[in-house]
Known about the structure:
There is one protein chain. By secondary structure, the chain is an alpha/beta fold. It has two domains: about 5-20 and about 95-220, 3-Layer(aba) Sandwich (Rossmann fold); about 20-90, Putative phosphatase, domain 2 (DNA polymerase, domain 1). It contains ten helices and six strands, in the order βααααααβαβαβαβαβ. The longest helix has 22 residues, at about 35-55.
Amino acid sequence: MPRPIRAAIFDAYGTLLDVHSAMAAHAARIGPAWANVSAEWRTRQLEYTWIAALTGRHRDFAAITDESLRIVALRHGIDDAGLLADIAASYRRLAAYPEVLGCLVDLRARGLGRAILSNGTPDMLASAVDEAGIGPLLDDVLSVEAVGVYKPDPRVYALATARFGCAPDELLFVSSNGWDAHGAAAFGCRVAWVNRAGGPAEYGLEHSATILPDLTDLARAL
């Protein structure tokens, strides 16, 4: 018999916060290829975190985010320094997905703990949480900076079990990133994969996770 879930732990970027809203806010200045530029930025950003983790040369997420933006801008011939500064600033103020607030309110009403566990730096996450207006609905915001390594290293997921004083299977880890969801499942968490893009299941998530199109019906995973 599975133990009851004590807390829901959320990835921030792409799960609660729309990572593409930073570029979307400046789409008219970037041009019609803005969505492709944004997607490449996200891919590069994640690649840089994995390389940092695998080489043992940690750099914080703010530095990686800015560097990956610079590289992608060069690849696409974007050389407007003012535009790049505005995009970088917008990344610190990402829009929350529309169902996020209701999801967190529902979890609070159910008496479950609620926290973010993210690659973001504490400063980045504080700005994002404040902008999204979700701070009062969270018990904590946990950053990988506490252990100096990125997801999916198991030391990151252990931050959540330590915070709530529980076993991994008493946590529901929620992420829109398949590799992140897999990392949490490998650590022993119960997992909800938010498949916002509607892509095929990867990493065996069809067997190890509850798959949802967004956070509206997260209660299915509880």
